[in-house]
């Protein structure tokens, strides 16, 4: 994770025929287990560190991967090179039209109304275990903030968080005096950075 991280293009999910942006990246657990299947692209973007945009579809309470796109080059009408998002689903999964995300056991966060301000926004939260929906809730912004606070406090107790926190604390230690008043200020910055740019720290409803 880069301390100067850029906001990332979101993955998508189709629910009842309508497409929504999501906070999480449900395909990452799959690529962690099968890294050789992750599509390769030569066009890197600071707004797309994972290298792809995935589309999922909720079918009979199960979450399926139904498309995956990467940045690719193409020639326009004037034969100049430009970039486009190209579907590579059939290249990654040549024998399937959808893939059950049975490695996904987290709470998916769906943005319901991106056209309004953040304070007015509602989120649909769907808890999945092994790719199957267990429960769903809709939160307004205030309830969502409380929920995320609770989930992040749980995440901070994990070894994954502790390892990432220590790694980021060690980054650019020689420049600490230039950017931070003291160690506590850097710790707070790192904590906020992890919270903002770690999409998959929500696990299950606790109440």
Short descriptors:
207 residues, alpha+beta, nine-stranded mixed sheet, globular, disordered N terminus
Protein model, in words:
- The chain has six helices and nine strands; from the N terminus they run ββαβββαββββαααα.
- It has 207 residues and is an alpha+beta fold.
- The protein has one domain (12-197).
- Strands 1, 2, 3, 4, 5, 6, 7, 8 and 9 form a nine-stranded mixed β-sheet that branches.
- Mean pLDDT is 86; it is low at 1-6.
Provide a brief overview of the structure.
This protein is of the alpha+beta class and 207 residues long. The chain is 27% helix and 29% strand.
Give a topology summary.
Blueprint: E1 12-15, E2 18-22, H1 28-33, E3 53-59, E4 62-75, E5 81-87, H2 89-92, E6 99-100, E7 107-111, E8 123-129, E9 132-139, H3 141-155, H4 159-170, H5 176-179, H6 183-197
Parallel strand pairs: 1-3
Antiparallel strand pairs: 1-2, 2-7, 3-4, 4-5, 4-6, 7-8, 8-9
Helix pairs in contact: 4-6
Radius of gyration: 19 Å
The H/E string reads EEHEEEHEEEEHHHH
Most strands sheet: 9 strands, mixed
Q: Give the number of helices.
A: 6
| Low-confidence parts | 1-6
How many structural units, i.e. domains? Answer: 1
Can you tell me the overall shape? globular
Number of strands: 9
Give the end-to-end Cα distance, rounded to a whole number of Å: 31 Å
Tell me, rounded to a whole number, the average pLDDT.
86
**Could you say which structural class the secondary elements and strand pairing correspond to?**
alpha+beta
Helix residue percentage: 25-40%
Share in β-strands: 25-35%
